[in-house]
Fold this protein.
Amino acid sequence: MCGRYVAISKVKAIEKRFSALIERPELFTPNTNIGIGTLAPVITQEHSDRIKHYQFGFTPYWAKKPFYLFNARSEGDHNKENNPTYRGAKGITVKPAFRQSIRSKRCLVLADGFIEGPQKERLSKPYVIYKRDGAPFAFAGLYDTWVNPDTGEMVDSFAIITTVSNKITAAIDHHRSPVILNEEDES
C-alpha cells in the first residue's frame, strides 16, 4: 500500500526537475527507506515554487491525536475488494479524514521509487519500483496541518493517494498502486 518509498536524487536535480527551490536544504538527505514519521520532500499547491519537508503519515487538522494515515484510497470505502477494473465513484471526496484536503490541500510527493511486496508476503519479499530512466517523479498526495493539543506544536503531514493495481504492481501480486503523476498533470 505504498508505506515505504525512496527519495535519493541530489538537491540540484530535484530543484531542476520540479522548477522549485528546497526551502530548508539541511533537511534534505537522500533516503532509501522513507516510512511513516519521516520528514520527506513535498510541493504544495499553495507554494508550487518551494520544496518543503512534511511528515509522512497524515493527520487531519481536527484530530485529537495523530492518525499517521499513509495512504488515501482514491475510491474511499468503495471497492473494498480492490477490483483492478473498478471505475466507480471516487469516495475519497467524502471520507472524513480527506474530504477537505482533496479539495484544497493537494501536494506532490517527490520520489525516485517505491517499495512494495506481494500481498501475502508484504515487505518480507520487497521490490523497489522506479522509472526506467531513473528520473525522480511525483506521487499525488494530500496534506494538512495538525496542532498537537497538548504541546501546541504544528505538524505538517501528508498521505499518498492510491488506486487499484496497475500492470506493474499486479505483476508482483500487489493489490494497490500509488498514483504517479505525469509531468503535465503536476501543476
Observations:
- The longest strand covers residues 137-147.
